[in-house]
From TrEMBL:
Presence of keyword DNA-binding: no
Topology term for the membrane: Multi-pass membrane protein
Domain of life: Bacteria
Pfam families, A to Z: AI-2E_transport
Source species: Pedobacter alpinus
Protein biosynthesis found in the keyword field: no
Subcellular location: Membrane
InterPro entries: AI-2E-like
UniProt keyword terms in alphabetical order: Membrane, Transmembrane, Transmembrane helix
Record-linked PANTHER family: TRANSMEMBRANE PROTEIN (PTHR21716), TRANSPORT PROTEIN YDBI-RELATED (PTHR21716:SF62)
Protein's name in the database: AI-2E family transporter
């Protein structure tokens, strides 16, 4: 009997080793698959955000009108698309003209700045550093990664839009299908989490759209009063880029300052002051209003998530970092913190 004990212990040890190797191998495979398909998951998540928007709008229409839900869903989808198409149809010609002027103005401004920098030791060193082959390659690599897309820009938008429409038409089907994969004792918890996620994402979308609209209107008014050329396209760019916290306003400021420099350095300073004032109003009033209805997210956490997702996946990661952080916080709150509180009681 004692002779068999070493053999049994060896067999148990061998099984544990193989089990460990199997778990590690499976984890590595899952990580590799996740890395290869993460951009696709981001597109699916973006489609879910579109569905949350359409569903929230259809619910609002249903509450106000008491019409059939299917009719309200159709109105929310078609109405939203028609509004976007109508907006660009009405002002599309002016925006297109200003975009062409912007593409011509920016290179001229850069050349003008380069001429002003030449002749000074600091300027010559800066120009040499920026125009070096190494810097150019770094910028090329960064731009290639940042602006990369899974199916091309229009392909990505097409995929996101149709995923959003399909989920909007039958959201319960997708939620029920996912919940059915969860063990019986966790089904009610899963439904509660889905409801909390939907509510938080709806609050985030409403707040973000309000913020984008306020930034667009204030920027348009300010630039028009200053007599800035290309004010409409610059205001539209500022409104759209405010979707991206922290980095969006900086990206929107760059072309505005370059255009202002074509007028005078004083105009550029006025533009910087205007954008800072609008950012102050948006951060201290609009964002505060949004945070009252959302989970509290620290600015450091938002920046960290943007840096991590932006470096891993490029532009889509940077754009979707905020709603992804909202989802992550809700999941941690519901699955971990609430459970700890229940165990204490």
């Amino acid at each position: 009997m004692k002779e068999n004990e070493p053999n049994n212990e060896l067999r148990i040890y061998t099984n544990k080793v193989w089990a460990t190797v199997g778990i590690v191998a499976l984890s590595l495979i899952l990580l590799l698959v996740l890395e290869a398909t993460f951009n696709v998951f981001l597109l699916i998540f973006a489609g879910i955000l579109i569905a949350v928007f359409f569903t929230g709008l259809s619910s609002l229409i249903h509450r106000k009108s008491k019409w059939n839900k299917k009719v309200c869903v159709s109105i929310s989808i078609l109405g939203s698309l028609l509004l976007i198409v109508g907006f660009f149809w009405l002002v599309g010609a002016q925006i297109n003209t200003q975009l062409e002027e912007l593409t011509e103005t920016i290179p001229k401004t850069i050349s003008n700045a380069q001429r002003q920098l030449e002749g000074s030791s600091v300027g010559d060193k800066l120009i040499k550093e920026v125009t070096s082959d190494e810097s150019a390659q770094k910028m090329k690599d960064f731009a290639g990664k940042f602006f990369s897309s899974t199916f091309g820009v229009f392909g990505d938008i097409y995929v996101i839009l149709f995923i959003g429409i399909f989920i909007t038409v039958a959201p319960d089907t997708y939620i029920s299908g996912f919940v059915s994969l969860i063990p019986e004792k966790g089904k009610n918890k899963a439904k509660t989490i889905f409801q909390a996620l939907g509510q938080q994402l709806r609050n985030w979308i409403k707040g973000t759209m309000l913020s984008m609209f306020v930034v667009f209107v204030l920027t348009a008014i300010g630039l028009a009063i200053m007599g800035m050329p290309l004010w409409l396209v610059l205001a539209l760019l500022a409104g759209l880029l405010s979707f991206i916290p922290n980095f969006g306003p900086i990206l929107a400021l760059i072309p505005a300052v370059l255009v202002a420099l074509m007028q005078s350095p004083q105009t550029a300073l006025w533009v910087v002051g205007l954008y800072m004032l609008i950012q102050f109003i948006e951060s201290n009033f609009i964002t505060t209003l949004i945070q009252k209805k959302m989970v509290n997210i620290s600015p450091a956490l938002i920046i960290a998530s943007q840096l991590i997702l932006g470096s891993l996946t490029g532009s889509w990661g940077l754009i979707l970092s905020m709603p992804l952080t909202v989802v992550l916080i809700v999941l941690i709150q519901r699955l971990y913190i609430d459970k700890k509180e229940e165990n204490k009681l």
